[in-house]
């Protein structure tokens, strides 16, 4: 059986988030989110700011919190851009001026998801930077 693509341009955000979930659980699947981000599981550990061994326990609270932060930031960016693919590209590649030119992915990995969300909120409300 072939899995459906996990993200497509202009995907419905609720569907996007639902597709990150492990079937039959409320957990975000490390495998699925790594596929969406286009990284190996080891790369996901880096992007989520967790030890690679943490991925062996997908239901661990710390891992789930970090994966939820990744999903929340991408969802917020997708709401602004109207396109999940663009949001993922921004998340991984676009330096944020007010944060030492680090990407959203780097900031989230360092535990600063709140700062990224504040940045997105500022952009949504017309701030520049």
TrEMBL record:
Q: Which domain of life is it from?
A: Bacteria
- What is the protein's name according to its record? Antitoxin Xre/MbcA/ParS-like toxin-binding domain-containing protein
């Amino acid at each position: 059986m072939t899995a459906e693509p996990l993200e497509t341009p202009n995907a419905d955000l609720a569907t996007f988030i639902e597709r990150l979930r492990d079937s039959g659980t409320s957990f975000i699947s490390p495998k699925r989110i790594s596929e969406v981000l286009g990284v190996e599981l080891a790369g996901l550990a880096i992007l989520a700011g967790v030890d690679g061994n943490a991925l062996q326990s997908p239901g661990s609270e710390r891992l789930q919190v970090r994966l939820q932060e990744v999903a929340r930031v991408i969802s917020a960016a997708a709401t602004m851009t109207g396109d999940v693919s663009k949001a993922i590209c921004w998340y991984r590649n676009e330096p944020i001026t007010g944060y030492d030119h680090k990407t959203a992915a780097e900031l989230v990995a360092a535990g600063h998801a709140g700062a990224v969300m504040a940045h997105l909120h500022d952009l949504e409300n017309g701030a520049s930077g």
